[in-house]
Amino acid sequence: MYLIESKRDGEWIYDPGVAMALQEYVKDHIFLDDDVLFPYMMQPAVQIGKFQNAYEEINQPYMDEHDIKIIRRETGGGAIYLDDRNMSFCFLFNGNNDIYGNYTRLYEPAIKALQKLGVVNLEQKGRNDLVLDGKKISGAAMTLQNGRIYAGYSLLLDPNYEAMVSVLNPNQKKIESHGIQSVRSRVGSIRPYLATEHQEMTVWEFTDYMICQLLEIDDISQAKRYELTSKDWAGVDKIAAEKYNNWDWNYGRFKQFEYRLTERFSIGTISIGLSIEHAKIAAIQITGDFFGTKDVKEVEEALVGERLRKADLLKSLEMLDLINYFGKLTKEELVNFMLSIPTVEV
């Protein structure tokens, strides 16, 4: 099995979009005489499944505040929070491998490796989860493409529980959608279960150990590597820019959904119903018991066609004085409300 590391000029690449683009590039353009392992670690990000509605999965205000990105992957499954405290492992297997659809088989080498570190009570459970003492420490996904099996999972060595709970707790009041929603599970951590002599293992030591176990070698220096060329990196960068670091792919790919919000402000109650297509406002209706001297329809018209993104919404309202429509309400308050950001205390 070849090892392909997410390194450029000897330095690890932590950009979530580039990490995902690297996997896609290798999957579609690099065909070697053996299977492939590519570990990756990224800056804080939420990785969602191909068929999920981003707005149902994430707490966008928390993500904005903590500079957490969202990345839509090419495989199905649910949302997962990833950061530089845990390592993920992706694989490309020959299509003749019996691993497709068999998550027990996929996890088997990882379970054996963890058991050698003293971790017991591991079990592949449900459709694609690995649980430790009843708590989820990994979720896997796989697909079949170009005659090869593309699969992967993350191993939660030191999960940031605060960020994980906050970011995967969407705060929209009501969304009507046909997206594949994540099943929220109790999340665990590998470290407390490591044998005493391994308790101080760093994430990089853990990564090197897992790579050696998965490649069945004694030392990381023995790994059979494929080094990405400058041409390869140009292809990776192109995919990252056009897809994984592209707002339309991450948010706009989901075709259509609707949601409704109601909030009490100092100027009265405002209710907003929105119809969203490809993450842009297709229709909006604003109602409430507020007082205004102008028709709120002008506000609705200004917002139609805009991306459901704070900067875009604020820009669309630049030429309007909201006092004429609602009374003492700022553009920031209205937009934050539309994105379900709690800014008003009554």
TrEMBL record:
Protein name: lipoate--protein ligase
GO cellular component: cytoplasm
Residue ranges constituting the BPL/LPL catalytic domain according to the UniProt record: 31-222
Catalytic activity: L-lysyl-[lipoyl-carrier protein] + (R)-lipoate + ATP = N(6)-[(R)-lipoyl]-L-lysyl-[lipoyl-carrier protein] + AMP + diphosphate + H(+)
A Pfam family reported for this protein in Swiss-Prot or TrEMBL: LplA-B_cat
Record keyword DNA repair present: no
Keyword annotations from UniProtKB, A to Z: ATP-binding, Ligase, Nucleotide-binding
Molecular function in Gene Ontology: ATP binding; lipoate-protein ligase activity; lipoyltransferase activity
Known EC number: 6.3.1.20
Superkingdom: Bacteria
Example GO biological process: protein lipoylation
Pathways per UniProt: Protein modification; protein lipoylation via exogenous pathway; protein N(6)-(lipoyl)lysine from lipoate: step 1/2; Protein modification; protein lipoylation via exogenous pathway; protein N(6)-(lipoyl)lysine from lipoate: step 2/2
